[in-house]
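Field: sequence (string)
Field: structure_tokens (string)

Example rows 1 and 2, in order.
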Amino acid sequence: MYEFNDKHTKDNLIHTNEIINIDSIKDGKILFKDGTIVTSEKTITSAIIPSIINDIAVTTIGDYAFKKCTQLTEVTIPNSVTSIGIGAFWRCYNLKSIELPNSIQTISDGAFAVCTSLTEISLPNSINNISYSMFAGCHNLISIEIPNSITNIEEHAFYNCTRLSAVTIPSRVTSVKEATFYNCSDLAYVQLPSTITTIENGAFTLCTSLSSIEIPGSVNSIVSLAFIECKNLTDIYFAGTTEQWSKISIEENALPASVVVNCMGDNKPPTTILAFKTHKPVELSEAQVEITNKTNNLRKVVINCVLAGTLVFCLVQLKKIK
């Protein structure tokens, strides 16, 4: 899911004449060429990267530059750096702290993937994209500050970030992409902006601490498995109306079987909608309830309130009602 090809090896570094020993990079050497830190020795424990090396500005942390530096605990990146390459800090298991300046414009795929000791990070407001698997496998990442400059969050960005507890998605993001928060088992709070139109396949799969979520009225598609195995998700609060919800494309198995949708946009007390496909019995408490045409697999309903309306169960395969 977030494995990357090894572009450089330690042997490449040891047998080159361009290796550099820098006082602020502890216990190891780096390979620096044409403004880029190309690779490094795996013994490095701390890296305060200078802005200039040999009279040349440091502008890029190259692809896999510090990959598998398992003893590296802290990194400070200078404001001369504008880009961080693919897998630059991949599998730096003991990396606890990294400072990212506002000069950075691009952070590439998997840059911090499997940095399992990283607990928090603030992204600079100079970037507009969270790349594929950027933090995938960061099991101890608890909090992240996502700047308003972000317009896109790629697939698997926070895959398997099991301790991530809360996320606020910025207002310029339009979709929650495939497996973005897959198996974020401690994720209890998500704020979605009113710009979101699509929640894609597996976006919140296995987010077992999520008990409720607010979905904006801008959403028009919820793809298969989007919230599957969210075992404690019982309530969706939809900002739009009952009519708007009925027009959303909701694929089979997109929502847990037990979830109910509370439509907050109606000019009356919120309407609770059973808008899922399920083979399980459903018990309705005292409430205003609408059973929509998206419940075509419903087999049994237990109603403990007044039943009103016509054609309530038309075109469903209901076998039992009481």
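Row 2 begins here:
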Amino acid sequence: MFDTKEKEKPFEILCEYYNKIKAHKQIKNIIDTSINRKIPYKVAIGIYIMETFYRPIYIRIVEYLLLVIGIFLNVIFKIPLRNITIGKLQIGLGTILSYYGNVKIGMHDRYIYSLSINQIMFIFKAISWKYQLEILYWWYKIHGLNETPGKIGYLYNGEIIYGIMLQRLVNIIDYNNCESKVSLSNGNYRLGM
């Protein structure tokens, strides 16, 4: 049998992380952009929290270096490039290329076999925060409308646990007053207890 407190640790850590970063410029940018696009901001913030917590900047720098090497090998030696995820929102290369209109490469293809110069430029452009948000909102309009946050998380990441964590994060995110004090005894997550 699992210890309830052990199961809740990752969730509590994410709540604490949110409390530390909720005043960051990116969080405010997510809220403003979401409101302008009439998309629930809590889902976007939840994705941002999980992706930046589990992929801090030093790991993303290594990802970018591997991406540059992979693109070089793909262009020069025609070695297939893995469809990896990049950026603060960990958006897949296939999703990026689909956003820019490439129909030959699917969002969930494992490899990208041949890249054009335009596609390489799109990939590097998508590393920026502005385009990461644009692609996330485009993806949400395709997959997320009328879905629960848990289902959106599953579709976004492909893992059930990601969907569960996103659902729970969305339930406690309140930009004006979020505290990580949660009631574990009955499974209700309330703010400011």
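free_text_note (row 2): The chain is about 60% helix and 5% strand.
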